[in-house]
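RECORD TYPE: protein structure
NAME: DNA translocase FtsK 4TM domain-containing protein
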Amino acid sequence: MAKKKIMRTDKSFSEVIGLKSVLQNDILNFIFGIILVLLSIYVIIAFISYFSTGQYDQSIILDHSPHEILNKNGEFKNSCGSFGAFVSYFFISRCFGLSAFIIPVFMGMAGLRLVRAYKINLLKWFFCLMIAMIWFSVASAKLLTPIMGSSIFNPGGDHGLYCSQWLENIVGVYGLMAILLLTAVVFLTYLSKETINVVRNILNPVGTLTGRVTFGIKNLAEKNDVQQEPVTTLDDPTVFDNPEPQQVVFTDTNTENTDKGKPETNDTTTKAESGENQKIIINTTGNETKADSSDVSGWKDLSVPIDPHEPWTKYRCPTLDLLKKYENDGKPYIDMKEQTANKNRIVEVLNSFGVQIKTIMATVGPTITLYEITPAEGVKISKIRNLEDDIALSLAALGIRIIAPIPGKGTIGIEVPNKKQNIVSMESILNSKRFQETAMDLPIAIGKTITNEIFMVDLAKLPHLLVAGATGQGKSVGLNAIITSLLYKKHPNELKLVLIDPKKVEFSIYAPIAQHFMAKVPDDNEEPIITDVTKVIRTLNSLCKLMDSRYDMLKLAGARNIKEYNKKYVNHQLKLTDGHEYMPYIVVVIDEFGDLIMTAGKEIEMPIARIAQLARAVGIHMVIATQRPTTSIITGNIKANFPGRMAFRVSAMIDSRTILDRPGANQLIGRGDMLFLNGNEPVRVQCAFVDTPEIERINQYIASQPGPLEPMELPEPVEADSASSGSGGMEMHNLDPLFAEAAEVVVLSQQGSTSMIQRRFSIGYNRAGRLMDQLEKAGIVGATQGSKPREVLIQDKTSLEALLAQLK
Ligand SMILES: Nc1ncnc2c1ncn2[C@@H]1O[C@H](COP(=O)(O)OP(=O)(O)OP(=O)(O)O)[C@@H](O)[C@H]1O
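PREDICTED:
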């Protein structure tokens, strides 16, 4: 109810009078916009024409009243006829003089805004241009009259003339000049704070000239006396194209003023141009002081979208030099002898089965070569498909896979492993245009296809991924590749990881980035990586709760998904007092969920399935891995909710069927060779290799960057038995210190709303939610009712005091 009330009182004046619905009509706006643009051009032409024709037309205008002025006999000389002559006469001569040109300019802008050709803040422009017009009118009446005295109109129009004379009579000519100067400075300062500097420099010209220092650019590639530091910035992808490190050293006087009060960013890719007014930007990556989260709260400029990276704008994504480069990286090694031998063998084997070939073409990938065969006329593909096993057997090589036919082509593919297998380095994948320029929300660069193309998918679209394969075939490396690609693209405010590792060894390497990139349930245990089964259950339940509360926030914001929600948030369309916060994507990675299902069964399976079913819209995505691809682990429920599948080598065809619903994974060669399925046909991909030292370096780099001081706190999960336990199960020492006060506020106001608690105590949404849960446990408020406030079960303060005493 409270939320509804807030929304109702929010109606703007234009909504109340119904103007908003008219303004929202796109077609009307478009037509009206075009009319305005044309009208503004017409008026400008009329104004210009007035300079030469005004003298003649003015005498006719003065002889007639406005309704008589119809240019029946072509008396008016203005290019825009009698109407143009009259409008020009009125606005230029009678009103604002030369500054009247601002009127059609504004009309044109309004028209372009309505047509939606430009995004213009019309109200702001209206006030600025109006002030400018009045000022220029007065100033030109005073300053230009001596020059344009002979003209038929005063350069400031009647308005300017009247105002300047009136002011001059009161304050004299110097007073008038002072007023004009003062208003100009105030107005320009309002438009740009740079004005202050300009005025300071004008007032102290000597200091300005002596204080200016030169700047220079130092190309570290030429002179290696400074440590090279290529920087991958979040929003400047050009670094990938030009990894040559450049340190730019800028120096100037105006160091103390940063742009619009925002913290200065370290951007080593900024180009140095002229020496005028360039700010100092020094790359101090790695040793910056940690900012304080309270920095954000002061920012109120609604015309500038909120920077989602605030307050950690100095955070830089890991650099490419942290990754290892390999010999022959990205260039497949082609052994012609091997290729010819393979070709001859294939032709021979196929001929022996009575299959004639028209052409054969080889595509050499990093670990596998694809032979694409066009059968001779009359050979049925089904015949080859039936011979699949025999052909594979005759070619007698591990990892042969026959694709008959290659989807979308009338050809047959035979995949044969190369003798020498190249490693696909993570560096070669991340240092690619595909990855660098991707617009994906959660890009995961997995590896290279057989045709040496970078294989990338958007986890946000998948939306969940199941990884399976026998032990030692590259699963853990695959999970690391997924996490690494996300870390190379995402800012800590945009992504949080929940790492679950029952094996206890795989993810411990990520502990250093807990503060920046992890989310955890509140508890005494500081360990950010979850290894214990009970904590896994708690975390998954907590994620379910977070999912529900995110849905509530989306509903309140009128957004359909996290992307829309965050867009609204950065554009100031959400009320912060309603508890809105920028929502990071949450990626849950579970290595070996088979162990978990075996120990906790449904308690694990149910929340996983629930999150998988519903969490896509609220930005929670799961990557779950198992080395036991059996139907008891990968249940129908799990399978149905994990459309993305990554299959590494398995030992039996049945396992391949469990993962991919078809054979294939049993024919892989291991060491990162995999089949990726998302839709119809699986794609064979060589997974990118990222080694432990590389991950350590990346994590150290991230840990040294400015960023959050704590892991993100997930909401306190609802325990299965909490509903029935009532207040009897409450432990007072575990309660939030604000519990008693919050209880009192809720009872006195008879409002069980989380956002009210949040506002009242100026606390975050998570803490307020936790308080509300404790109030529910204590029997003070009822259960959650979607986005409605909860029912308050205690009616007055006396009953509350009795209850609190009982709890103690
Ligand atoms: N993409 C890859 N490129 C090259 N070699 C790889 C790749 N992936 C894995 N390997 C090799 O295979 C070994 C085992 O890989 P990994 O540890 O990822 O297997 P796993 O399936 O996770 O095994 P387990 O289930 O026992 O943890 C690695 O140490 C590495 O030598």
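COMMENT: The two ends are 32 Å apart (CA to CA).
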